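Page header: ASSEMBLY MODEL / two components / 613 residues total.
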Amino acid sequence: MAAVQDTAVAVGTGASSRPAAQSRLARIWASHGAGYMFLLPWLIGFFGLTLGPAIASLYLSFTNFDLIRAPEWIGTANYARIATADPKFAAAVKVTFLYVVLSVPFKLAFALLVAILLDRGVRGLTVYRAIFYLPSLLGGSVAIAVLWRQLFAGDGLINSLLAQFGIEGPSWISHPDYSIWTLVVLSVWQFGSPMIIFLAGLRQVPTDMYEAASLDGASKFRQFYKITLPLLTPVIFFNAVVQTIDAFKAFTPAFIISGGTGGPINSTLFYTLYLYQEAFGNFRMGYASALAWILVLIIGLFTAFSFLTSRYWVHYDD
Amino acid sequence: MTDATMSSVTAPPPVPTGRRGPVGSVLVHAALIAASIAMVYPLLWMISASVRPEDEIFASTSLWPSSVDFSSYVRGWFGLDVSFGRFFWNSLVIAVLTVVGNVVACSLAAYAFARLRFAGRKFWFAIMLGTMMIPYHVTLIPQYVLFLDLGWVNTFLPLVVPKFLASDAFFIFLMVQFFRGIPRELDEAAMMDGCGAWRIYWKIMLPLSLPVLATAAIFSFIWTWDDFFGPLIYLNDMNSYTIQLGLRTFVDSSSTSDWGGLFAMSTLSLVPVFFFFLFFQRLLIEGIATTGMKR
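Prediction written out in full:
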């Protein structure tokens, strides 16, 4: 459009020096304009919904803000309170770390184990894969969290099953020592998507390596340990980072199972649940913004740490 | 990368290499079958509980109801002040608009990144990848304030409009990967024939990219359908509730009284996702294997 107009102007004025300049403009437009036209929706979104709000949130984290009155600058008071005087923050960090440390290794170990069982030559691979993948697809919904709440209730299905073996189980979800485990089990139940990524990774391991190793008399365990595992480390690394970041951000199951409280005794108070309570329960928007930035810091530090340590155990092809 | 991984995931497994003997094979199947049963047992139990007579729900751990009774579905459907029909409709509207927004806006951006040359392309691409790493909690509160000022709270707009601005960078990345695999000769030939960028995008890229567009559409639908946090924050009036909010309200209002109705509505809420699982499983699995996305 602009190019056409510019050309028209140039023709109209008839100035001899103009056409060269105008056609340069037209060329710039032709080579760059189209790109920016296609990028326009994303650019608007980036500035309006990501960069702008991120800056605003950084500012808000240094204020007192309840949505009604204008934000009031209080310096680093929010951060000081988080660091020194907020037992709920400490509880939320503890619960979230516990959840990450328990759920991610179990989930990945399960995913890897099943992927190895499924790899190469198992009949009915597609059926098994489908069954194991289904929970990953459904698991994020409220319906599954509701189901979990029943499964692990005092009179729930798990305890009915245990009763058949003469075991009397506790009310898992309302006992502060066990409630986090119900969420861990829910997470491990959704091992299907890392499993599929492992399967794809296992397919990349060349079969002739195993054949050569067999000829040399290497046992299967040794083959796994010396060939499969090293070649799979990039995939393990990828899955570990993705699943950990995901676990830090978990929200729905804890919200539904605890009825939004994070109870009993803060034992399911995930970090994001606490952030939600502060922002939309207590309307401490400034404080919640500070919590959000702490979360970014935690995830950022974790990611940086993973990448730094990865060079010591992740094997990349040269 | 994409092609190699995709075909390796979906192609029939290579001829058995005989790494397992018959005994090993039986053991493997026994383990896999046991694991499969453990995985689906809770789901099947919920479905069976939804069609049991009410007094029988907690009495039995078996999957077969003594008699089939759909009254839980009727009770559940009308269990709240607003019927579940309304919640399903709201979820459907939001999910469909999200799918359209994501497919249109993300494919436009992806085309620019994959094919067009313009100053700053690499810079913006790096920024776009960076936005995938940022937890949404950082932008949550200012976005809420913005939508509150615009008067959008309690409408579907805060949930849908960002999708038309390509806010799900993940799908841009997915599409860029796919677009890069389409032979450039096609665009170049079209350009010789005088096609502009728009026509190439519309007549060549999109028609050749149906698999990735479908993958993005299906994941958009499922994630939006399951989304709880967004609707929880932006929708306060029960008439605008999504199915997930409806279920949550149901749990809170009848936590121990009507499990039958709750399970019936929970089962229904899973049906659309299950439908995509049944008919588009291959696309979903390829999508995960190629990009390593989380679900």
